[in-house]
Amino acid sequence: MKGKRADYGSLPTEQALADGADLERRSTDDIVRLLLDEEARSQQAAMRCRKDIVRAVDAVVASLKAGGRLIYAGAGTSGRLGALDAAELPPTFGAPVGQVLAIVAGGPRALTRSVEGAEDRSDAARARLLRLRLGPNDIVCAIAASGVTPFARAALAYAKEQAARTIFVTCVQDASHERLADVVIAAEVGPEVLPGSTRLKGGTVTKIILNAISTTSMIRLHKVYRGRMVDVTATNRKLRDRATRILVELSGLGRTQAARLLKRANGRPKLALAMHLLGADAETARRRLDEVDDDLHRL
Fold it and tell me: What's the 3-state SS for the chain?
């Protein structure tokens, strides 16, 4: 919070859960039960934010269609969850490398270990986005369970300066957040079983929200056809098998025929299916897909 120090003790994410007061004296079964009962609140909190998640999806799709990028920004668990989502979109949906990125407080080493004090370095967020040449077609999704993380808030402030779209994913309702971002998703999960440990419900609800934003955005960008991930990148044995099965299921071809067609399409199920539907070679099918914005329904 620029200009004044955050009152961390008053944050909802720092409050104590009444049921957790005697946690260490309970049986293992009781502790696990309490943790799982509390985790169930994450799904409910995400559902209450559904309309804001829809707004976020619309903003992401608009940016990506304009040739921009989705850039996650966060510290600690929040930053790692953004990085996880960014890493999984290229193989799952064939998203171009660099279309979805993540900046994490403390840099790459913070993905596997704690980097003390990194979340307080607001200047680092601005510097990272400056190096990425953030522009008006991009969208920054900052993640901060507490709502006060300087790194995340600085990323939003810089994005605003560059006229980029902005989303703020947090677990705290605060009227001031509306000035930070175009879309605020405040999923109130209540106090954690361990006060302040937002790797628990805070992390769970963040993962749910990011899943919803990115997956729905990819669907809206025509990377799913008849419920299948037709843009999956077949980079290993499992994914090659999945790509073949997708083609078999959607084309009605036998497995051997589908495998041959997939090979001619350089392992890309969508292109292979377009070739099958059009009775065309790969180059012709690719041209036609470009003409219909990659939407197989419009072939």
Answer: CCCCCCCHHHCHHHCCCHHHCCHHHCCHHHHHHHHHHHHHHHHHHHHHCHHHHHHHHHHHHHHHHCCCCEEEEECHHHHHHHHHHHHHHHHHHCCCCCCEEEEECCCHHHHCCCCCCHHHCHHHHHHHHHHCCCCCCCEEEEEECCCCCHHHHHHHHHHHHCCCEEEEEECCCCHHHHHCCCEEEECCCCCCCCCCCCCCHHHHHHHHHHHHHHHHHHHHCCCCECCECCCCCCCCHHHHHHHHHHHHHHHCCCHHHHHHHHHHCCCCHHHHHHHHHHCCCHHHHHHHHHHCCCCHHHC
